C-alpha cells in the first residue's frame, strides 16, 4: 500500500504548495464583495459558511465519476493512480479553481458567459449548447447509476428508483439552494466520510486484500487493459472526475454565488478537487487489491463498475457496513445529478435572460429538461457513459482555454492553464480521430500527431489574438 499512501500524500502536498501558487497567480482580493452579498436573491445567490460551501462543492462535483471512472481506469494498472495525482494537482484543481473564481469575479456567471467574455461570442454560443448537453448527460448518468445500485441493494425495481430520483431532482432544481441542498448535504457528507474512511481503513487492515499487486516501472507505459483499450488516450478520457472534469466548470458557479469571501476560494474549489482525487485513489486501490490485479478486476467487474462497488463494500465492511458504504456511493451521483439539472436551468436562464426568482419561470425551464432526461434514460448506459466522457473532457478543454485567455489578458502566468489545456486538447482530438465508434477511426499515430498539432495551433492563435490588446479590468473594479 506504499504506492497508494504516497499518492494520497502527494495530493495533500499539492493542495498546500501548488494550490497556494495558483491562488497567488490569480490574485485574490479579500476586501471585494462577492456575488453572494452583491446579488443576494434568496434562491441561487445565498451567502453560506466556508465549511458548508466546501462540502456542497465536493458533493456537487463528486458524482459517480470518481468511483466508476477510477474503477474502469484501474484496468490500466498503476498508471491510473499516477494520472489521478498529476491530473488532479496540475489540471483538475486548477480548472476548478479558475472556473469558480472567474465566476466570483463576474457576478456568478456560468461557464458559457465566461467563455464568451474571454474567448469571444462563438465560444459562448458553442459552450451554451455543449454545456447544456453535457449537463443533461450527467443528469441521466447520475440517475441510472444510483437507481441500479439501489435496485441491487434492495431487490426492488430499478424503474421505481428512477422515478423517485427524478422527483427529488425536480424539487431540488427549483427550490432555493439553501432549502434542500444546504440542509441535506451535511448528512450526505457524513455518509461520504464514512464510505471513504471506512473502506480505506478496512482495506489497510484486511489480511486478505491489504496489498496492491506488485508492479514494475514498465507497467506505467504498458497497456495492461485486458479489453485492449489503448492507454493513450483512453485512460485520460476514462478517468475524468478524479483528475480533470469539465462537469466541474458547470458546478463551480453554483458555489461562486454562495461564497462569502475570495480567500475561501482555494479551500472550496482547489481543495474540493483534491478531496475528489483522494476518493478516486481509494476506489482505484480497492479495485486493484480486492480483486487481486487487472485480470481479476476485469472478471469481477463483468462490464459494470457497480458490481465492483457492491462486492468490495460488502466484502470489506460486512453486510451492515457494506450497506452504509454503498449508500454513500449512491449519495454521490444523486448530489451531483440534482445540481446538474440546476446548472442547466441557470445556463438557460442566462441565455434567455429570464430571472429565476419566480417559481413559474423556474418550472418553465426545468420541466423540458426533465422530459428530455427521461427520454435519455431509455438509452443504454454504456453508450451514454461514452458520450458523457468525451463531452466532459471537451468542456474541460474549453474552460482551461478560457482561464488561459483570462491570464493572458491580465499579463499573468498563463502557462499554469495553457499547458494542461494543450495536453487535454491533444487527448480529446486524438481520441475522437482514433475512436471507431465515436470518431473517425484513423490510425493512432496520425491521430496523435494531429492532436498535438491542434493543441499547439490553438495555443499560438490564442497568444496572437490576445497579446497586445487592452486588458479588460471591469471585474477587478
UniProtKB/TrEMBL annotation:
Pfam families: CstA. The keyword Metal-binding does not apply. InterPro entries: CstA, CstA_N. Its main location: membrane. The chain crosses the membrane at residues 80-98, 126-147, 153-172, 184-205, 229-247, 267-292, 312-335, 363-384, 390-408, 415-433, 445-464. Belongs to the peptide transporter carbon starvation (CstA) (TC 2.A.114) family. It is found in: Cell membrane. Residues 4-144, 154-285, 291-429 form the CstA N-terminal domain. It is a multi-pass membrane protein. Coiled coil: none annotated. This is Carbon starvation protein A. Keywords: Cell membrane, Membrane, Transmembrane, Transmembrane helix. It comes from the Bacteria.
Amino acid at each position: 500500500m506504499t504506492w497508494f499512501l504516497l499518492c494520497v500524500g502527494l495530493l495533500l502536498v499539492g493542495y498546500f504548495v501548488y494550490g497556494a501558487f495558483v491562488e497567488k497567480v490569480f490574485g485574490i482580493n479579500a476586501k471585494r464583495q462577492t456575488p453572494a452579498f452583491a446579488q443576494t436573491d434568496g434562491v441561487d445567490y445565498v451567502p453560506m459558511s466556508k465549511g458548508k460551501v466546501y462540502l456542497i462543492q465536493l458533493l456537487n462535483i463528486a458524482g459517480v465519476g470518481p468511483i466508476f471512472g477510477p474503477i474502469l481506469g484501474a484496468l490500466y494498472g498503476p498508471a491510473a493512480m499516477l494520472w489521478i495525482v498529476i491530473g488532479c494537482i496540475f489540471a483538475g484543481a486548477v480548472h476548478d479553481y479558475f472556473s469558480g473564481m472567474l465566476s466570483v469575479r463576474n457576478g456568478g456567471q456560468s461557464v458559457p458567459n465566461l467563455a464568451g467574455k474571454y474567448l469571444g461570442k462563438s465560444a459562448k454560443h458553442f459552450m451554451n449548447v455543449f454545456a447544456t448537453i453535457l449537463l443533461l448527460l450527467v443528469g441521466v448518468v447520475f440517475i441510472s447509476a444510483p437507481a441500479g445500485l439501489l435496485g441491487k441493494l434492495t431487490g426492488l425495481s430499478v424503474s421505481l428508483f428512477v422515478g423517485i430520483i427524478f422527483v427529488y431532482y425536480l424539487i431540488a432544481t427549483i427550490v432555493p439552494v439553501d432549502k434542500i441542498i444546504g440542509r441535506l448535504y451535511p448528512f450526505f457528507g457524513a455518509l461520504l466520510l464514512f464510505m471513504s474512511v471506512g473502506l480505506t481503513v478496512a482495506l489497510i487492515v484486511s489480511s486478505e486484500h491489504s496489498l496492491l499487486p506488485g508492479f514494475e516501472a514498465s507497467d506505467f507505459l504498458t497497456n495492461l487493459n485486458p479489453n485492449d483499450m489503448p492507454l493513450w488516450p483512453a485512460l485520460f478520457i476514462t478517468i475524468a472526475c478524479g483528475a480533470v472534469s469539465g462537469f466541474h466548470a458547470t458546478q463551480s458557479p453554483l458555489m461562486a454565488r454562495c461564497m462569502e469571501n475570495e480567500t475561501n476560494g482555494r479551500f472550496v474549489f482547489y481543495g474540493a478537487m483534491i478531496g475528489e482525487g483522494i476518493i478516486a485513489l481509494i476506489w482505484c486501490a480497492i479495485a486493484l487489491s480486492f480483486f487481486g490485479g487487472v485480470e481479476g478486476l476485469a472478471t469481477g467487474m463483468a462490464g459494470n463498475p457497480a458490481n465492483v462497488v457492491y462486492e468490495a463494500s460488502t466484502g470489506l465492511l460486512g453486510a451492515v457496513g457494506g450497506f452504509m458504504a454503498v449508500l454513500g456511493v449512491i449519495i454521490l451521483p444523486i448530489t451531483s445529478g440534482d445540481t446538474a439539472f440546476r446548472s442547466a436551468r441557470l445556463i438557460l436562464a442566462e441565455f434567455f435572460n429570464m430571472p429565476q426568482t419566480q417559481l413559474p419561470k423556474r418550472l418553465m425551464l426545468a420541466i423540458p429538461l426533465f422530459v428530455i432526461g427521461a427520454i435519455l434514460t431509455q438509452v443504454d448506459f454504456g453508450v451514454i457513459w461514452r458520450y458523457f466522457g468525451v463531452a466532459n473532457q471537451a468542456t474541460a478543454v474549453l474552460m482551461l482555454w478560457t482561464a488561459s485567455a483570462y491570464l493572458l489578458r491580465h499579463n499573468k502566468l498563463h502557462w499554469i492553464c495553457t499547458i494542461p489545456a494543450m495536453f487535454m486538447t491533444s487527448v480529446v482530438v486524438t481520441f475522437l480521430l482514433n475512436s471507431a465508434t465515436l470518431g473517425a477511426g484513423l490510425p493512432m499515430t496520425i491521430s496523435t500527431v494531429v492532436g498535438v498539432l491542434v493543441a499547439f495551433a490553438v495555443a499560438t492563435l490564442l497568444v496572437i489574438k490576445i497579446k497586445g490588446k487592452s486588458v479588460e479590468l471591469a471585474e477587478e473594479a
